[in-house]
Design a protein that fits this description.
Length: about 475
C-alpha cells in the first residue's frame, strides 16, 4: 500500500453546478488546461446540499447514507456505519495521516465527517477560509488529504438566481481563492505531486432554487489535475456521478474502494487506469443504448442486497422492510420510489421480471392515487392473473387489460406507451396486446406524484403486492 500522490485536495463550490463555463475563471482554466474535465457529471437527488456532499464524501447515494440538511446540523454521523467517509477509510489505513476539512457550511464538519478521526477542521466565510487554508498548508506541508467547501456562490444563487451576473461574479471571485491556494502550493514546490480536484455539489434555477431534477440543478462540473492524469473529457461514454469523487480521492491515496460503496473510478482520468473501474457498470453503455426505435434506457434497477440504479440517472428510495434474496427484492412489505424519474409527455416503456402468487392482487407500479381510477397519472396492477393499465386525467379514466396465458412465476412483462402514435402495448410472457388510446392522456405530463414500484404513489398506496422483483427497467 503506497500513495499515488503526496497529497489529495478535493475542493467543492456549493451551488456552482456547471456555471463555471459561463464565468471568468482564469485560475481554474490554467490549473486544468492539461487535466481531465467534464461538464456532464450527475449529482445526487434531491439536489440539496447534505444529500450531495454526503454522497461526495461517503461514496454512496442519499438513499443509502440518508443524510439531510436537518440531520447533518444536529446529529453526528455514525462512526461505525458500513458507509464510511473517505476520511475514515484513510485514517484506518494511515493512522498517522494528516487530514483536514475546511468548510464555510459547518454542518459538513459536524454531521458528514465522522468525529474522533483527528481531522483538522476549520470554518469561516469563503475569503477568511482561504486564509486559514493557506496558513494550514504553510504550517503542514506534509498533509495528506484536504477537503474544502466554499459556500458563498450558493448564497449568491439563492439571492439573485443561478446563472445571473451576480452568481457568475461570485464564481469568478471564488476562482481567485482557488488561485491563491494553487500559488501557495507552487511556491512550496508541492503542486506537481498533488491530485487537485474541483467540483460542485449542485447547481440551481434562474429563480434561485434547487432540489429538483432539471439539468441546471443536477449536472455538475468536475476538474482533475495531477501527474498521470489524462488530458481530455472524463468518461465521455458514461457521465460520472458525484459519489465517484470519493473513489477518486482514495485512488490518489493508494487505497481500495470499500465494497459497500457504489462509487467507481470513471474512465479516462488516470493513465494507469484508463478504463476506470466501471467496466461492470451498466451505465457505461446504457445511456446510448437504444433498445427499440425511439427508446433509450434510463433506469435499470439491480437488487443484489440493495436497490441501485446501475444507469446512475436516478436514486431509488426503498421504503419499508424489503427482503433481498438471489438478486431479487420481495416487495410485500415495502415499495420503491424512483427519484427523480419524470415521464413528462414522452413515450416510455417499462420492462420487468417478477414472480407473483397465483391470486396476487395489488399495484405493480404507479404514479397516482390508485384508490381513485380517474385520479391524475397511471397505474399498472394485477388481479388474479389479469394485468390492468389505468390512466386518469383528474376527471375521467381509461383502463386496458391483458390476461396472463402462462404461469406467474418469473413472469416477463412489458408496458409500452407510445404517446405520438397513441398506442398502448401490454405484453406478458411473450403474448402482446395492442390498444388504441384514442388520444386519451395524450398531453398529460404524468408527473404529479412519484414513480413508485410495489404500491401507489403519495399517501394512497393501495394494496402491497406479494411480488418478487428481479428486473425493472424504464426506457424513454
Amino acid at each position: 500500500m503506497s500513495k499515488r500522490y503526496s497529497r489529495v485536495i478535493l475542493l467543492g463550490v456549493d451551488g456552482a453546478g456547471i456555471f463555471f463555463a459561463q464565468a471568468d475563471t482564469p485560475n481554474m482554466d490554467k490549473l486544468f488546461e492539461n487535466g481531465a474535465v467534464t461538464y456532464k457529471a450527475i449529482t445526487s437527488f434531491p439536489t440539496i446540499s447534505a444529500e450531495c456532499w454526503g454522497s461526495m464524501l461517503h461514496g454512496v447515494g442519499p438513499e443509502v447514507h440518508k443524510l439531510t440538511n436537518s440531520i447533518v446540523g444536529s446529529i453526528r454521523y455514525d462512526v461505525k456505519s458500513p458507509y464510511p467517509s473517505f476520511f475514515r477509510v484513510i485514517r484506518e489505513n494511515y493512522p498517522d495521516a494528516k487530514l483536514a476539512s475546511f468548510c464555510n457550511w459547518d454542518p459538513i464538519n459536524y454531521g458528514i465527517v465522522e468525529e474522533d478521526l483527528n481531522v483538522y477542521q476549520g470554518t469561516n466565510g469563503d475569503e477568511r477560509l482561504t486564509d486559514m487554508i493557506i496558513d494550514y498548508i504553510n504550517e503542514n506541508p506534509d498533509f495528506d488529504t484536504l477537503f474544502i467547501q466554499y459556500d458563498d456562490v450558493d448564497g449568491a444563487g439563492h439571492e439573485n438566481g443561478y446563472g445571473t451576473k451576480n452568481h457568475l461574479d461570485r464564481i469568478t471571485l471564488t476562482d481567485t481563492f482557488i488561485g491563491k491556494i494553487v500559488d501557495t502550493l507552487k511556491a512550496k514546490d508541492m503542486l506537481d505531486d498533488t491530485l487537485f480536484i474541483v467540483t460542485a455539489d449542485h447547481g440551481g434555477t434562474p429563480t434561485g432554487g434547487h432540489g429538483g431534477n432539471t439539468d441546471a440543478e443536477k449536472i455538475i462540473y468536475m476538474g482533475i489535475a495531477g501527474k498521470g492524469v489524462i488530458k481530455g473529457e472524463i468518461s465521455p461514454e458514461c457521465p460520472p456521478n458525484v459519489r465517484d469523487l470519493a473513489a477518486i480521492v482514495l485512488y490518489g491515496m493508494g487505497l481500495d474502494i470499500p465494497e459497500t460503496w457504489t462509487a467507481k473510478i470513471p474512465a479516462n482520468i488516470f493513465e494507469e487506469l484508463k478504463e476506470g473501474t466501471q467496466n461492470d457498470c451498466a451505465c457505461c453503455c446504457a445511456p446510448e443504448q437504444t433498445v427499440s426505435e425511439g427508446f433509450v434506457l434510463r433506469t435499470a434497477l439491480s437488487f443484489d442486497g440493495k436497490t441501485v440504479d446501475t444507469t446512475s440517472f436516478t436514486s431509488p428510495i426503498v421504503v419499508g422492510d424489503p427482503v433481498y434474496e438471489d438478486s431479487k427484492i420481495d416487495l410485500y412489505q415495502s415499495q420503491i420510489i424512483i427519484n427523480p424519474y419524470k415521464i413528462g409527455v414522452d413515450n416510455f416503456k417499462v420492462c420487468l421480471n417478477a414472480s407473483f402468487a397465483p391470486n396476487a392482487k395489488g399495484v405493480i407500479f404507479a404514479n397516482k392515487n390508485v384508490s381513485v381510477p380517474e385520479a391524475y397519472g397511471f397505474a399498472f396492477t394485477v388481479d388474479n392473473g389479469t394485468f390492468n393499465f389505468n390512466v386518469g386525467d383528474g376527471t375521467s379514466a381509461y383502463n386496458w387489460a391483458i390476461e396472463a396465458d402462462a404461469g406467474l412465476d418469473n413472469a416477463e412483462i412489458e408496458v409500452t406507451v407510445d404517446r405520438k402514435a397513441q398506442k398502448l402495448i401490454l405484453a406478458v410472457n411473450g403474448t402482446a396486446k395492442e390498444f388504441d388510446m384514442d388520444d386519451f392522456g395524450k398531453d398529460l405530463t404524468f408527473d404529479a406524484l412519484a414513480f413508485t414500484i410495489g404500491a401507489g404513489a403519495g399517501n394512497n398506496l393501495g394494496e402491497h403486492i406479494p411480488m418478487k422483483l428481479s428486473k425493472f427497467e424504464v426506457y424513454r
